[in-house]
Design goal:
Structural class of chain A: alpha/beta
CATH class of the domain at 7-36 and 98-204 in chain A: Alpha Beta
Strand content of chain A: 15-25%
Largest sheet of chain A: 5 strands, parallel
CATH topology of the domain at 7-36 and 98-204 in chain A: Rossmann fold
Protein name (chains A, B): Guanylate kinase
Main location (chains A, B): cytoplasm
Catalytic activity (chains A, B): GMP + ATP = GDP + ADP
Mean pLDDT of chain A: 87
Low-confidence stretches of chain A: none
Domain Guanylate kinase-like (chains A, B): 5-184
Distance between the termini of chain A: 24 Å
Keywords (chains A, B): ATP-binding, Cytoplasm, Kinase, Nucleotide-binding, Transferase
Number of helices of chain A: 8
Shape of chain A: globular
Oligomer: homodimer
Helix content of chain A: 40-55%
Largest interface: A-B, 32 and 32 residues
CATH architecture of the domain at 7-36 and 98-204 in chain A: 3-Layer(aba) Sandwich
Chain lengths: 205, 205
């Protein structure tokens, strides 16, 4: 039997740069894990590709999937749904491959309830000013939405205690490298290698 | 108050290459941690430096330190004592600096009893043939000692369950890099960063 893959969950406050760090991890490295594309009802931004950045769906389509129990987690956030299609995640983990999720904090907590064996990484802003300017400079949101996001960010920071690791997004490459190291190190945990070692010992005796 | 440093314990079967990997970690990287030099009564090998590779001491000197309770752990191994001077370890951890130990398996288990919060890394041989040839090619030991070491190695492999991580010594640089990553990742654990984040949240509110 193949050992089940690792579920890796990257999350953090809105505007902290989760998407950029996730892209760096997938662009800069040959990874042994697959990225699970989230589903959302929010407006597609310029440059975003359906099925790559997100699955962009209508509210009706999304709510249909909720009723069918087809989501690992979903959340309503600033008036839009975000969620993780369940089927792909389970199938990939069962095949022994790791799955990488990049999701909002609300969703991460729900995944933690269902799959506590996952590795939960919180991407944190270097400081408040930095977070604020990142949100403002995104340039596609109204002032009211920015206020909303800031309050949300403080609430989200308080959730850090439910994560396994915290990585400061000081530079994108640094954060990406650290997250890669965390995943590699998690695979070196004895609890994940006992079977293999039982075989080696048998061979030696 | 400074947060206490991490105790990192590198161990593994005799002849697996612990010393070489430890040297690579200290030669190839700028580390934030200090190496705790072990004390031994075994014969100094060619090229080994007192106070760098080991503190080479007589049996009488070593037993004096045992009576004084001055060792974090010690073990008798193939007729010789090996041990870790306690004072240096505690002082360094209290200053908030990490301490790196490279010790025999017997000793590592004793350290685990006293300091379960340490990070215990087991360096494993890629396979039996490889381990065998490394022990034989060391060239300074008798046939009887080699047999003794092999039996010991199997016993030691069985102790892997008491460790946190297992790193295969496929190549020295690979193993050194992985151990570096483990140490860095351990520092990113949320449990070790909650204080810092309480401050950030306070700042934001």
């Amino acid at each position: 039997m193949t050992e089940r893959g690792l579920l890796i969950v990257l999350s953090g406050p809105s505007g902290v740069g989760k998407g950029t760090v996730r892209k760096a991890i997938f662009d800069n490295y040959n990874n042994d894990f697959d990225y699970s594309v989230s589903m959302t009802t929010r407006k597609q931004r310029e440059g975003e590709v359906d099925g790559v950045d997100y699955y962009f769906r209508t509210k009706e389509q999304f709510e249909h999937l909720i009723r069918e129990d087809g989501l690992l987690e979903y959340a309503e956030y600033v008036g839009n749904y975000y969620g993780t299609p369940l089927e792909y995640v389970n199938k990939t983990l069962d095949e022994g491959r790791d799955v990488f999720l990049e999701i909002e904090v609300q969703g991460a907590l729900k995944v933690r309830e269902k799959m506590p064996e996952g590795i939960f990484v919180f991407l944190s802003p270097p400081d408040l000013e930095e977070l604020n300017s990142r949100i403002v400079n995104r340039g596609t949101d109204t002032h009211e939405m920015i206020e909303k996001r800031m309050t949300k960010a403080v609430e989200e920071l308080k959730l850090i205690q439910y994560y396994d690791y915290v990585v400061e997004n000081d530079t994108v490459n640094n954060a990406a490298r650290k997250i890669r190291n965390i995943i590699e190190s998690e695979h070196l945990k004895v609890t994940r290698n006992l079977k293999e070692f039982a075989e080696i010992i048998e061979e030696m005796e």
